[in-house]
Amino acid sequence: MPKSVIIPPGTPTPIAPFVPGTLADGVVYVSGTLPFDAENNVVHVGDAAAQTRHVLETIKKVIETAGGSLSDVTFNSIFITDWANYAAVNQVYAEYFPGEKPARFCIQCGLVKPDALIEIASVAHIGKKGA
Predict the structure, then answer these.
(1) Based on the number of CB atoms within 10 Å of its own CB, is 26 exposed (0-12), middle (13-18) or buried (19 or more)?
(2) By CB atoms within 10 Å of each CB, which of 39, 70, 93, 130 scores lowest?
(3) How far apart are the C-alpha atoms of 39 and 26, rounded to whole Å?
(4) Can you give the pTM of this predicted structure?
C-alpha cells in the first residue's frame, strides 16, 4: 500500500523522528500535535483553550494539505495534563467539530514540554482524494 507524507507549507522541523501526517489508502493519520510555534516553543502558556485552538488549527492544516477537511475526522486521541482544563478543551473542541462528532478518548498525562497543556492526534478518512 503506497503512502504519502503530509507536511503543510511552513511546518517546523519536528522535535522527534516523525512527520505531521501520513496519507495511506484514503486515510490521514495526524501525529500527536502540540501547541508549538515555528521554533517548537509552546504558545499560549497557561491557556488551555488557546492551546486547543492552536492544536486544532494545526491538525486542520495537515488534513487540508492531504485534501480533506475536519469533517472527515473519525477519531481523536486527546491528552491533557490536568482535568481542570477539560471544560475549556471541550468548549473549543465543540467549535471545530459541530454536528456529528468523531469518536475520541481523553486521558490525563505528562507531555513532552511542561508548558504544553494538550496534545491531540487524529485520524481522518478522506477517500481517494488527496496529496
Answers:
(1) middle
(2) 39
(3) 31
(4) 0.95
